[in-house]
Amino acid sequence: MRCQSEAVSGSCIIQKFSPGDESLGEARRGDNILVLDIGCGKGGDLQKWQSAPRRVDLYVGIDPADVSIDQAKGRYEQMKRKPYRGRPQHVFHAEFFAKDGYGEWLGEIPIIQEVGIDPSVGPDSGGAGRFGGGGFDVVTMMFCMHYAFESEHKARGMLRNVAGSLKKGGRFIGVIPNSDILSAKVEEHHKKYGKGKNANGSDGVDGSGSPTYASDDDWDPEKPAEEPKEEAPQPEKEDGEVKDESVEWGNSIYRVKFPGKTPVDGVFRPPFGWKYFYFLEEAVESVPEYVVPWEAFRALAEDYNLELQYRKPFNEVWDEENGDPTLGPLSERMGVRGRDRGPLLISSEEMEAASFYHAFCFYKV
Question: Are 98 and 197 within one domain?
């Protein structure tokens, strides 16, 4: 499953959406591209960018963890020294910085200042940033953007960095957990085990049977999120009563667990701070992540002149792209499917785990 995730998220999404000659309004034919990787981790996508259809001129990697940045630097130096598939390779220039791409303004980094970053993007700019722009052709966030949805402040800080860095026509690509799956599983749990109360104290419907989260209390991206209301003290549970309000599902490959209250209707409002724990076999320990309610994210991105171009779950990406001349052979080398476009070699549980994610692409208008 990890092999398929790498093949689909890294190679396919980068191959598909690293801009071609026709995709950038400000790019001239033959121009190399400039890439900003927010949440670059240990540099796992470096070789994927080296193999991108457009040559990369500059790669800037950002990650809050010093140890990850050190490892990314080491991987880059190793990549420069080693030939790729037996041939010498011209490797792009790369710089790495330990920085929080959600809570800190990336315009303080010298190389980003030099390339160009527009501080006037977003709803507070009065439209000043609409015709301005940064200097990067692509901003990428693979398997990390969901951490920004811990709070509205972080989510907006992330989008300000993304939109400010992109030139007009530039692309914002990434992979995140699919909120449609999270919502469906939460709603399914409440239907199976009986109707409870939503996290705001309501049961998710008003007197007419309409959902309160989705109608009366719908989220406005132009207004700050309200602080959660304090809950009234609850009486102690009697012996024999179920005390655990958690929602949990998964299989032998992955597990997801919401430790506290969840909305009965599966609609996450307000769209920030919905923590769950995710475990993937042989990849990560159980770590806290945050739901990215898709429509709320899309609406928020529009505030920063980012327009949706593409969104698909991993299984659909695989179905559409497995015949790609780059992805197809790569999936065979990684053991995802048999040789000569053979059958899939991964189990249904592995496919279910991979389908927890979806890929997206926005472009700067």
Answer: no
242 in the same domain as 107: no
For position 348, what pLDDT does the model report? 85
Does residue 115 form part of some domain? yes
Looking at the 3D structure of the chain, how many domains does it have?
2
Chain-centroid distance, C-alpha 14:
14
Q: Which domain holds residue 122?
A: 2-178+291-338+358-364
318 pLDDT tier (thresholds 50, 70, 90): confident
% residues pLDDT > 90 (the chain): 56
Per-residue burial over 87-124, b if 16 or more Cβ lie within 10 Å, else e, is eeeebbebebbebbbbeebbbebeebeebbbbeebbee
Its pTM stands at 0.83
